[in-house]
Specification:
With 312 residues, this protein is of the alpha/beta class. The protein contains 8 helices and 15 strands. The longest helix is centred in the middle third of the chain and has 24 residues, at 165-188.
């Protein structure tokens, strides 16, 4: 079989977690023929039109950028770039069969879980909230199903006890480039070996914004897992039991203590502000009250009337 001495690569990705893989392809002097990414979106209170981090990275490296809004536009971009392969990291768009068929060596996705566990848009928060001790990355060939394609390689990764969705995504993002570069090398010599997915599948839809409402009546372990899974997005919050105002919980940790508190009850302590759960209390470090800037939880507590807590 003829070797592809130079593999023409089209990259597809959008958020920060996709940038390390794109930059690695650039740094490795890959034949990068273009980048697909989501169109710029209005961001912030002033709704400033903002390009994706992947678009910013591509333009800094003089890589052609395409921001298709439909499958037809994706197909047009593919036809312009004439890639041998498309490597995908968190692109954020479903692909129809015409797009898949237009690339001779296929579309390959680096998914942030060990498939078939946690198929879908948000594998990392689901792994954390479920209490998984291990996750990883799976590089598979995209087919018509939802993350159902045959697997080329996997990498396991331990979930640390204090990992949030943000910290774990960052760690996995730094491991993804090695897989992309290995795929390109193996495609060049037609050495890619595939295996079908095996085991029980589970699914990870994008978390609902209300999934950040802290349920203080659950066990401390589950409450802390909930906080970690929604940090930094969609964000954890508690509701004051006197005004109903939302208070964002920006930093929290678990700490051994013999103190017992009712779920949602708040108390100062030398280690920080304790909030009661169904078992042991947790320590809240940084909060952001409604309409205010982030502040140390101890400073916020000093401004509360005695006995104020969170709705459990």
């Amino acid at each position: 079989m003829t070797k592809l001495t130079r593999v023409r690569v089209l990259f597809a990705g959008s958020p920060h977690v996709a940038v390390p893989t794109l930059q690695a392809l650039v740094d490795a002097n890959s034949e990068l023929v273009g980048v697909l990414t989501q169109p710029a979106q209005p961001v912030g209170r002033k709704r400033v039109l903002t390009a994706t981090p992947v678009e910013d990275c591509a333009r800094k490296n003089d890589v052609p950028v395409f921001t298709p809004r439909s499958s037809a536009e994706v197909l047009n971009a593919v036809k312009q770039c004439v890639p041998d392969v498309v490597i995908v990291v968190a692109y954020g768009r479903l692909l129809d069969q015409d797009c898949l068929d237009a690339v001779p060596e296929g579309w390959w996705n680096i998914h942030f879980s060990l498939l078939p566990r946690w198929r879908g848009a948000a594998p990392v928060p689901h792994a954390i909230r479920n209490g998984d001790s291990e996750t990883g990355l799976t590089l598979f060939r995209i087919d018509s199903g939802l993350d159902t394609g045959d697997i080329a390689m996997t990498r396991s990764h331990r979930i640390d006890a204090d990992d949030t969705t943000g910290t774990l995504l960052a760690k996995l993002a730094e491991r993804a480039p090695e897989m992309a570069l290995e795929l390109v090398s193996k495609l060049a010599s037609h050495e890619v070996e595939l295996a079908p997915q095996s085991g029980e599948a589970s699914y990870a839809p994008k978390p609902d914004p209300d999934s950040g409402a802290m349920g203080w009546s659950a066990t401390g372990h589950k409450v802390y897992g909930q906080f970690r899974s929604v940090t930094p997005e969609p964000g954890a919050y508690g509701l004051r039991d006197d005004t109903g105002d939302r208070v964002k919980i920006l930093a929290m940790h678990a700490e051994k203590t013999d103190q017992l508190l009712a779920p949602g009850a708040i108390m100062d302590s030398p280690g920080g502000v304790l909030v009661g759960t169904g078992t042991y209390p947790l320590v809240v470090d940084v909060v952001q009250p409604a309409g205010k800037k982030p502040m140390e939880a101890k400073d916020w507590l000093r401004g509360l009337a005695p006995g104020v807590g969170f709705h459990a």
